[in-house]
Amino acid sequence: MINLVILGTGNLATHLIKTFLKAKNVRLVQVFNHHSDSLEPFRPFTSTTTDIQKLKKADVYLLALKDDVIEEVALKLSEKGGLIAHTSGSVSMDVLNTFENHGVFYPLQSFSKNRPVDFEEIPVCLEANSVDNLKILKKLALGISDNVLEINSKQRRNLHLAAVFINNFTNHFYSLGSELCRENGLSFELLKPLIKETASKIETLSPIDAQTGPALRNDIKTINSHLKMLGPEQQQIYKLLTHSIQNLHGKKL
Amino acid sequence: MINLVILGTGNLATHLIKTFLKAKNVRLVQVFNHHSDSLEPFRPFTSTTTDIQKLKKADVYLLALKDDVIEEVALKLSEKGGLIAHTSGSVSMDVLNTFENHGVFYPLQSFSKNRPVDFEEIPVCLEANSVDNLKILKKLALGISDNVLEINSKQRRNLHLAAVFINNFTNHFYSLGSELCRENGLSFELLKPLIKETASKIETLSPIDAQTGPALRNDIKTINSHLKMLGPEQQQIYKLLTHSIQNLHGKKL
Known about the structure:
The structure is a homodimer. By secondary structure, the first copy, chain A, is of the alpha/beta class. Chain A has helices spanning 11-22, 67-76, 131-142, 153-183, 192-201, 207-210, 214-217, 220-228, 232-248; strands spanning 2-7, 26-32, 47-49, 60-63, 83-86, 102-107, 124-128, 148-150.
C-alpha cells in the first residue's frame, strides 16, 4: 500500500485525486491547496490542508501544480523522507534535487474539468533519481494505468512539445474550422465525422501515409483559392503548413 | 430506382462504387475510366468502359474525379439528359452549366485506399440547378448516408477549406509529433491516446472551451523553451499558432 499526498486541485490534480481514491494499492492520505475553497469537493473523501507545514507523512508527494509554481511550492516543502515528484511535461526533474528522493510522474493526456478521463490507457511517463524511487513511482502508476514507462527529461520535454502540436494546435484548427462554419451559416456538427476519422486513421495508417489534400497534391489552383478566402494571419498559417507538408513529403512548391 | 454511372476510380470513386453497389435504391450501371487497368477490380460487379462516348443511359452521372480534370472530362461528355454532378469540395457547380441538369454531390470525408469508410454518418452536401435535380441527388445521397443537406457553392468552398485545417493540417501535426517521437527514441503509440482524446473532446465541449496549453495560459517560459527545441520552419509554425490561439481567445503576447 502506497500512502499518497497530492498537492494541487487543478484539472490534472482533480482527475488524479478521483482516480487514486479508487486505486486498490494506494491510500490518498491528504490533499493540499492554499485556497480552502478549492479543497471543498475533496473533504468528504480524504484529509485536506491549506498549511504546507502540516502535510502528513506519506510515501509519495505528488506536486500536481502549474509549471511555474512547482519550484516555489517545493521550496516550502520540508524534507519528509518520502518521494517528491512533479507531474509536468516540461519542467526538469532537477528542480526537485534538494530532496533525497525525487522524480517525475507525467501522465500524457489533456485534462478538462467536468470531462471524465479513463486513466487505464493514458501513458504515465516516469523519471526518478534512483532505481528504488523508480520502483515506487511504477507501483503508484500501475495502480491507475496499464501504460507505464520510464523516459528521461529530454524525452519528456519532446513528448510535451509533440503534445502541443497534436493537441493544442490541432484543437485550435478545430476552432478555426468552427469559426468558418459559423461565418457561413453551417453547423460545426458537419465537421465532426471528419475530425473523428482523421484521428482514427492513424490507428491503422502512419500519419505520413494518411496525409491527403491540396498541399500534398501540390494542387496550386485550390491552394490559391483557399488563400484568397483567408485573413492575413490564417493565410500565413495556411502557407507555412502547406510548405511544411511539402517539405516533409519531399516536394517543392 | 436510380440508374447511376460513376466516372473515376480514385479513392473517393472507389468508396462510392463499393457503397452504391450495396445501396438498395440505386443501380450502378457503369464505371468509366480512361485507364483499363484501374477498372479491373469493378468488372465482376458492373459494366465498365474506357470510352467516354460509350456511356450508358443513366439518371445520374457522378464525376468522382480530381478537381483539375472535372471540366476537361465534362467537356467530352455528350448531353444524355441525365443529371451530371461532380463530387468536389472546391470546384464551383457552374463548370457543369453547359448541361441542362447539373449539380454537386460532395461527401465531406477523407478517403484513403484500403481503409473502409462507413458512409452512413458522412455528411453529403448537395447543390443542384433545379428543385427537381436536387430531389434526385437527395434520393441518391439518402441511399448511402443519413446525413444529407443542401449547401451553396460558397458554403461548400468554406467547408472544404475548414476540412483542410481539421484534416490535412491536423494530420501533418500528427506527422510532426511522430517525427519528434522518432528523433527521441519514443514510440508514436504514446501519442495515440492524446490524439484520440483531442478529437473526442469536441463531442462534448466546443473547441473554444476545449483549448488548453501554454499558448492559452500565456506560459512564456514553456513557449520559449519549446521554440528553442524546434528548427526554423517549425518555430515559425509554433509562433504563428500560439499567436492565433491568443488572438482567438482575446489575449496578448
